[in-house]
Structure formats: structure tokens, C-alpha cells
Amino acid sequence: MRENNIIHSPVNKLLQALGENTKLEVNEWAKNASYHGLGNAFNKKWMADITPVALLRLSVKEAVNIIATLSESGIFYEEFPKYIETPNYGDKWGRLANYIEINDRAIATMDGGCTCKGILSCIKLLAAIPPSARSWANCVILSQVWQNIYGDAYSKGPFEENSVYGLRLNTSYSDNIIDYSIVDKISPEEQLKAFVDLAHFRGIKAGFRQVISADQMKVAYPDHEETFSWCNPEHVEIYINENVKLMNLGFECMFIDSAKHIGGYDCANYTGVGDLPEYPQMQYILNEIRSRSGKTDISFVGEKSSDDFERYRLMGLTAGTDFITGDDFYAVRQLSERLKYCRDYAPGVEVSNDNNEGGMTYEQRLNRINTALFAFYLASDKLPSFMQMNDLFPLRYDTSTHHLMMTNPSYSIDGTAESHWENLFAKDDGKYYNHRVGELFAHALSL
């Protein structure tokens, strides 16, 4: 703490709220074992050849020490800086980015049947997310920020519904994510801001998943709650302002679930619950989020919004998922070439998505990542790509990305959080797979 009790950053405030001092120390493990980019990206560093428990079992202070040790500038900051700016890739950065979704609820602390402190786990895992390349950004997407309506803060059985696709607006953030034991010392917003600042320090953009299906949202009032309605102007206003609040905390990407079907498009394949916004209404909403936040560089990513490119570009989206997988390197490279003059919007290359129920081999995943990172003639023409936590850190054999989005089981065998983290992910084979992913990113970061 500095003179007159001035806290210099949300990160320092978080450390003090957790009973730590703010003086940082070099972490020798990170200094000696980190991976780095090749060639002129040598200073871009991250932790690989690991399973996530190696980081998740650490304290937040130890995690911040590692992040400071991996500083790309080569400067070791003995106290975390007060002002951190987002990596600057221009207003259209989202058109080229690699999006990596992290299920913050799944890696949260599970203690006595309760789930909490997911944002602290995300802070710990940041050191294992590869930094951005020279020509494009990597962006971490959080699966959950708001409270969910099926049992927020509770772990349940492995087949009991507890979906993150249903959320409650106009209230605070999820008990799964925030450390509410320290909110008298640091607010939920400041905890989220600390995560964003650490991501930016790592050279990584930050975003969040948002739903648009009306019956999957509730609006909370002091004495009651209502099912969301796109025909209710007050609900729409709340929806806009909730997203603006996150943008004002430093988030810069909004991943929009079921975006393909906005305006009633292709609803024969719509699997959400409830009405969707009309096309001009969504144009208005996205424009208002940009306008009210004052940010011109927000990336709006639409799930499966990729078969009518012009429709989604004019809606205000930056990228769309699920147009082409990474299985065919040459098909992706030709698509990149065909769309190289489309600088506002492009469909993306999928490694896997939130609906993935497993079944892909490690080799297929690695091939798709290779395609996502290298399938172009010029780096400036790269297509955006989409990955899940499972694509960097393989999950245990009997679960999947979609299973963990729909349920919230604990895999602890002794009731401790560390046991859950250890058993959530694949072990020796997952560690070796993570090493191979690290090799791919090492070659890509100089591009």
C-alpha cells in the first residue's frame, strides 16, 4: 500500500483485499519454463506443457507474480501498473482475432457444494493463454458473467441442469464468478476490471458471452422479476446498459449466442427458447452499445452468423462462427483469399464450439488449430478463429464443453477445490497435448 492508502490499480486493490501486499517478485518457474514465440516474437511468453491445476492451485499473488515475470517488454514491474491499455490492433481487430472461450464457472472454486471465485481462477489461468501475434489479437471470452437462473452458485450432479445460457439482468454479477467474501474491500466491478487489466498486460483482449433468447433471461427488480421481452422498451434499455457496463470495465468483445437467427432468420434450426430481437432492433442495440461506451473498437461476434455475410456485416457484427472448420487447410486458405478485401466482417474458422460434445481426437484438434493459425497467403488476410478451453487444455474423457455449459458438476474426490481442478482436465496426455498446442502458437506469434 502506498502513502495515504492510495491503491494504484484494481489488481493491487484485489491483492490487498486478499490479504497480500502489492510488492511483486520474479517467479523462477515461469522465468525458466515459459514458452516463447520464435524469431522476432521471442519476448512473447506463456506457460505451456502443463495441466491447468499447476496454475489454479496457486494463490492470486503467485499468479500475478508469474504474469509480471512474463512481461513482454522485459521490464519487471515490482508493483502492478495503475493504467493498462488494451493491445492496440486498431478498430477492426476482431476481424482477424483468435477467440478462446474459457468456462469460468467450470474452473471456479467448488467448496461444500458451492461454486465461487471464478474470476480469480481466470486470473490464474491467464499465464497459460498465448499472447497475441504481431498481426492479430488473441481474445479470451468468459462463458459467464451474470447470474444464471438455474441455480447460481451451486454445483449439482453431473446430469442436473444448471445452464449458463439462462441469465438474470439488472442485478449484480454471478456468485459463481465473483469473490463475494471480499466485496467490502473490492467491488464485483473492480474484480472484473482486475482480470481485464491482467489480460491486457498479457497482450490479450477480453470479451464475454451474451444470450438473446427472451425466455432465457430474467429482469430482476427489488420486489419481483420478469421474463425478458424484446417488446418491452425498459427491458431493452436494461439489456443495453448491462453490456455497456462491461465495456466500460475494459471488455471489448461481445459473443452473441444464436445470432444467426436474429430477425427470424433460419428459425427452423433455432434451438434457443423464446423470442429474438428483430434485425433493425439488433442494429440499434449494437450501435447503442458502441455509442454509450464511447468505444469504436468493440468486436461483436455472432454465433453461426456466417452464411449471409452481408446481412451480418450490416447488422454491425465483426465476425461469425461455424462457417468452416479447420479440417481442410486449403479450403480455409482459399476462403481467406476470397475475403481478403472484406475488412469489416468475416466468417470464422472453428476448432470447436460451445455445443461440442466430444469425440474429436487430439490430432484433429491440432490440425484445426494449425489451420486456424496458418491458413492464409498473407497474415493480414487471416480469418478469425474460435476455440474452447478444451482446445488448449483437454477435459477429462467423460465430459465435454457442452456438458459443462449445461451442468455444473464437481469432480473433486475429497471435497477440495484442488481435487476438482486436478480431475476436471486430462492429465499426462493433456499435458503433452498442451505442449503441442504451445509449439503451434510459438510459430504463429511472429506473423
State the main characteristics:
447 residues; alpha/beta; eight-stranded parallel barrel; four-stranded mixed sheet; 15 helices; 15% strand
Describe this structure in words.
There is one protein chain. This protein is an alpha/beta fold and 447 residues long. It has helices spanning 10-17, 28-33, 53-56, 60-69, 118-125, 188-201, 233-248, 279-293, 309-315, 329-338, 362-374, 389-392, 401-406, 417-424, 428-444; strands spanning 35-36, 45-46, 98-102, 109-111, 114-116, 138-142, 146-148, 167-173, 205-210, 217-220, 225-227, 253-256, 299-302, 319-325, 346-350, 385-388. The strands form 4 sheets. Strands 3-6-9-12-13-14-15-16 form an 8-stranded parallel β-barrel. The model is unreliable at 1-5 (pLDDT under 50).
